[in-house]
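Input chain follows. Return structure tokens only.
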Amino acid sequence: MTPTHLPGRVAIPSLPEQTRTPPSPSTLESFNTAPADEIEQTLLACLRSPRWAARLADHRPYPDLDALLAASDEAAYDLAPRDLAEALAGETLPVLPEGAYGAAHTALNAANAAYEAKFGHAFIICLDDLSPNEALDHVLQAIRSRLANDPDDERVLTAEELRRLARGRLLRHLRAAGNRATSPDDAVPGR
């Protein structure tokens, strides 16, 4: 069965990995020593804010993963409203889990349309700590609950969800880079 794309704009990251192994020290070293423009492009895949990406790239090297994640959080907290709007505009369409039924699409589309009409931007939520079976229900419940927020409170909550999304995406990128660096294909020169 092919995954179904949701026609709305709800930022749902890919489902969390089952293992939570930290990136290797060599992965952080690669992050610290890569060219700034390359790292900024990588960071823009985590959060579509050029200001956030440039700030993280400019403050390298990071002594350890905790320092990088703290810098990521701080840079996200410091985003101006324009930066947040830019990051929100860059969120992509999610894929609903396989087997999601038609009523789920209808409910999610209706809730998302109401959310966008009220707040003027995509609904953002980080699902990194949820099992795939809980994601859809959690999103629906969260949209409906957050529709009761006033715009200022929702802006703060949205910024926090973007920060959490960026942190999770950055960790996944670093883990994936570490896995590529230790794969047998990468160990053979010229491949």
